[in-house]
Amino acid sequence: MSSFQHLSSATTHAEDVDRIFDLLLVLSAATSALVFGLILTFAVRYRRGSAAPRGRLPEFVSREFEIGWTAATLFTFVFLFWWASSIDVSSQSAPANALDIHVLAKQWMWKTQHANGAREINELHVPVGRAIRLQMTSQDVIHSFFVPAFRVKQDVLPGRTTELWFKPTRAGVFPLLCAEYCGTDHSLMRGRIIVMPPEAYAQWLSAQPQGDDLAHHGARLFVANGCSGCHAASSNVHAPSLQGLYGRTVALADGRHVVADDAYIRDSILQPKRDIAAGYEPIMPSFAGLLDDGEIQSLTAYIRSLTAGEHQ
Ligand code: CUA
Q: What domains, with CATH codes, occur in the chain?
């Protein structure tokens, strides 16, 4: 089995998925055994020339028995549905203390960036036992972030941020694949997730050239692209303040309410006319074509940091 070592479950989610998979396997095997057992029994019992009674059968199945096994089957299916959906629902939202890592996909590589600015290509180092949330976007076409051992797969789309989270349960090196056909070198768009003990991870992280962290890079872009001209506290232009915006519910001019998450911030930068905040004029120009996805990730990280209280 050692050649499948890299596929055996390596996250809490993978354990959940495997548990229900095993149960389904056992249930299917038991049902198949029952059906084939009955086929065999009847084939032998009623073979040509046997003395088994034929003709009208006595009614030996009682009404209670009929109701009982119908209810039991229904209960089993409802239980399986409930179990599978609860796993699915919990896989949608990461715990609040998750470690955020940014992923940028492009033809044909994975670029990852840690909170302190450390960057990697086709590799991602993470600590074991800690929830990791990936904020992912694509620079060109649709890709899909797939780690078989983690039992997670999420499309990575241009013009949108998608999330994926997992909590590694053991150290090791696990293959990362692109699971959406994305052009000539799709099959070569692979990487490795390196799960390390927390101390080793801390050591690894501090040994990386830090470059610029995303929020600082975003803060510079914020000024360089003129965002600060309107959104700074001292500005004369009537534009929404971004202080404390991230994660808040925003009232829109058309009466809708939206949560200011990564997707909302990205849309506001690229299609500012779409979701106008209540009480403001639609005066913001679109930055579509002027900022690339990496820059939008940086700006989003900066706006987020205004809420986290890092850049007051
Ligand atoms: Cu990227 Cu397939």
A: 1-56+93-210 (2.60.40.420), 214-305 (1.10.760.10)
